[in-house]
Specification:
Elements lengths: L4 H13 E4 L2 E4 L5 E2 L4 E4 L2 E4 L7 E3 L5 E3 L2 E2 L4 H44 L4 H39 L12 H10 L3
Helix pairs in contact: 1-2, 1-3, 2-3, 3-4
Amino acid sequence: MSFRYLPCVLALAVLTSACSSDNDVQVFGGDTDVINSHITLNDGHVTIKMPGAPNATIDQNGQLAIDGHDVAVNDAQRALLQRYNGAARQTREHALEAGKAGVATASKALGAVAGKMTGADTAEQTKQKAEDASKDILQAATKICDDMAEMKTAQDQLAVELDAFKPYATALNDESVAKCRKDTKR
């Protein structure tokens, strides 16, 4: 009897609710969601913390505040700020979905192992059930990477369009998005 797939599936389930990529750590589901070491989401407000710069906050309406002071923005800039905030909120929603998929995946994997232990399933059937279950979690995790890419695109445009945002232009980087995508291809 082979249980070698169970640890992989369970580890994958845990990784979707808390993903890490070097210094970027994602933890979702608490009062404050940590998107990476610079970006948090709390009650619909995105806070960006960069070394040497005061904290910046973006609300759902696209209002940027730096060090607690509102920054005047035009309609195009406000739309980009709303896009950035929206992508952060979507990241949270998709991370929670991935966590739920992880729980379901672990449950399916345990069921497959139970089937193998009782003799109801062959080793190949157990392996296939575990692989099928892990696909659900990878699909859910892919959405998180898409959301991060959307945030990165909005961030890059904001850095060009809004001088006050330039100190926050590296909160997300290409490597973080690329690593996220690479991790979901496993």
